[in-house]
Amino acid sequence: MSRKEKASTSDAQEISVESASGVNNIKENSMSPHDLLKINVNDHTEKKNNLTYLSWAWAWAEALKADPQANYEVLMFSDPDHQTNMLPFQDLGGSHMVWVKVTMFGKTITQQLPILDYRNKCIPQPNAFEVNTSIMRCLTKGIAMHGLGLYIYAGEDLPESDEKEAPTPVATAPKPIVKAVSKSVQTKEWDDSDASRKLFADGMIEYTNHCTTVAGLNSYWKSNELQLDSLKETHPLLYKGVLDCFKELKIKLNQTEKPNE
């Protein structure tokens, strides 16, 4: 065998070993959203004004452990005053919204979050620190949508469990934030504003499947009340669909929660 042929064979063996090793690593680190739903994140949260915040740095580290291919993207928007400039938030005329895409397990989920102060009020002219804080919180929400820490957005104390002996709180959806639109903007069925509202409404309805108590259902509605009011004003039919879904589920939950007589 020539020296060149030996080198080719050696290279092929190395590639084969590396590929096999890569496959093994993927299998060893393989997790799913269901696995993330069961992780207790309580030791990595803090309370501020009766709200629970999960550490974004810890959350992202756990996301990478679960899926080494995980990535996120902060959406950029044109500066209304300087069209050539790009900003990491959307100016909605008196309020601002940050948007973050989080991709895990081959699926991309987009989350949006208004830039708020410590009183949860919109900041008319946010500074760089306030913008960055909102982006990191939005990132954490995006990770939660993939399962990690999802239960804290429903006001629950513990994550899901596989144990069947004692029922445990079931995680519900984080707060989907609808993208607000100025009344002066004329929308069409296919533009982004309508699409985001449809996504919000569908998400609200979809995640009621995780609400197992009336208290949890009420908390879920209350946490999205601002966005639901906006939906009611701009898209009453979508709002009615969400409202009817909540009313129907609340009746069922009330019936199941009644003590046996």
Give unreliable regions as ranges.
2-28, 163-173, 177-192
What is the total tally of β strands?
A: 8
Compute the number of structural domains. Answer: 2
Order of helices and strands: HHEEHEEEEEEHHHHH
Overall mean pLDDT:
75
Structural class: alpha+beta
Estimated share of beta-strand residues: 5-15%
Identify the overall geometry.
globular
Helix content: 40-55%
Question: What is the radius of gyration computed over CA atoms, rounded to a whole number of angstroms?
Answer: 23 Å
Major sheet, described briefly?
4 strands, antiparallel
Question: With helices defined by DSSP (H or I, 4 residues minimum), what is the helix count?
Answer: 8
End-to-end separation in angstroms reads: 88 Å
Task: Throw out a few tags for this protein.
single chain, 261 residues, alpha+beta, 2 domains, 4-stranded antiparallel β-sheet, 8 strands, disordered N terminus
Structural overview:
The protein is α+β, with helices and mostly antiparallel strands. The chain folds into 2 domains: 33-167, no CATH class; 175-261, no CATH class. The chain has 8 helices and 8 strands, in the order ααββαββββββααααα. It has helices at 3-28, 33-37, 56-66, 128-145, 192-206, 214-223, 225-234, 236-257; strands at residues 45-48, 51-54, 71-74, 77-78, 86-87, 90-91, 96-104, 107-114. Strands 3, 6, 7 and 8 form a 4-stranded antiparallel β-sheet that branches. Strands 1-2 form a two-stranded antiparallel ribbon. A hairpin with a 7-residue loop joins strand 4 (77-78) and strand 5 (86-87). Helix 5 (192-206) packs parallel to helix 8. The longest helix is centred in the N-terminal third of the chain and has 26 residues, at 3-28.
